[in-house]
Amino acid sequence: MNIYALIASLPTLSLDTPPAISGEKFLQACESGLSAEDSAAARALLNGVPPPESACRGFIGRWRDVDTQIRNAVAVRRATKLGLDASAWVRPTQGCAVWLRDGVEDAFQEKDPLDREKAIDRLRWQALEELQGVDPMTRDAVFAYAAKLALVSKWHRYSETQGSEKLAALTNVPITLD
């Protein structure tokens, strides 16, 4: 399989619907359609681990920088709300995209923490769309797909039942009066 067949075989992703491909199936396709180094980079993006250092140039380096900018904006927003200095949590970046900072600020207008986190992930999604470029048949598109699949998979691992059970376990503490 080549990169064109790989990309053509990938189902469309959306944050609002479960992924139509598993992470393992995606990685198997990457192994047959990409070089070993690019396949390892896609695996790292999907699993949220640091990619091989040689892969950190180009798309992956830009994605790490954008994600750091988003994380920094979140840290600043949370620290400001608590009256703290955010410098301990802010990491160095190469870029400074005002639209990312504004997007985080918009996300923090959400009252519900879950909606806020989803808005931040939508911002990440938008950044990935921009980073992959206009040519849909490049390895950057595969790398963006890996990061998007990680986001979609994260959101569809959550369930209301599991959340309710965890909340009950945390709040169901017996109180004894002596």
Keywords for this entry:
single chain; 178 residues; mainly alpha; 0% strand
Outline the structure in words:
The chain is mostly helical. The protein has one domain (19-157). It is built from eight helices and no strands. The chain has helices at residues 3-9, 23-33, 36-47, 59-82, 98-107, 113-132, 139-157, 160-171. The chain is globular and about 70 Å long. The chain starts with a helix and ends in a 7-residue tail after the last helix. The model has no long low-confidence stretch (mean pLDDT 91).
H/E element order:
HHHHHHHH
The total count of helices amounts to 8
The proportion of strand residues reads under 5%
**What number of domains?**
1
- Secondary structure: helix percent: 55-70%
- Largest sheet data: none
Question: How large is the radius of gyration?
Answer: 19 Å
- The residue-averaged pLDDT reads 91
Question: Helix/strand-derived class?
Answer: mainly alpha
State the distance separating the first and last CA atoms: 71 Å
- Low-confidence region ranges: none
Total strand count, please? 0
Query: What general form does the structure show?
Result: globular
Indicate the topology.
Elements: H1 3-9, H2 23-33, H3 36-47, H4 59-82, H5 98-107, H6 113-132, H7 139-157, H8 160-171
Helix pairs in contact: 1-2, 2-3, 3-7, 4-5, 4-6, 5-6, 6-7
